[in-house]
Amino acid sequence: MKITLQYIEDCPNWETTDLNLAMLIGEGVDATVAYELIESHERAVERGFCGSPTVLIDGVDPFSDQKAPAGLACRIYLTEHGPAGTPTIAQLREAITAAKTRS
User: In Å, how far are 1, 3, 45, 56, 82 from 88, measured between CA atoms?
Assistant: First the structure.
């Protein structure tokens, strides 16, 4: 499984997401993480990037919001504790499990 962590340089939340992914891999999730820095609005539009951090699992954004515009911004995730700048470990685990089921 390939996980791509897309981010913008000024976003403080992508590093937390990276740590959460590393924790899951440390627990035995069989995945590699690649990083993609989104540096321009044009690239954001081209990649369908709707905010930092974005997690792609085998190329699919499991947290996609069809209403969110592409652009250079920090992303908000709805968690059990309210809005947050990163998905929780439980949300990431669930998304990875769902992706395994699909493949």
Answer: 19, 16, 26, 15, 11
34-89 pLDDT, tens digit each: 999 999 999 999 999 999 999 999 999 999 988 888 999 999 999 999 999 999 99
Residue with tokens 């989104």: 38
Q: What is the DSSP string of 23-51?
A: HHHHTT---EEEEEE--SHHHHHHHT--S
Q: Which amino acid is at 47?
A: R
In angstroms, the CA 57 to CA 93 distance is 11
Domains of the chain: 2-102 (3.40.30)
Task: State the number of CA atoms in the 13 A half-sphere of 78 facing the CB.
Answer: 4
Q: What is the pTM of this model?
A: 0.93
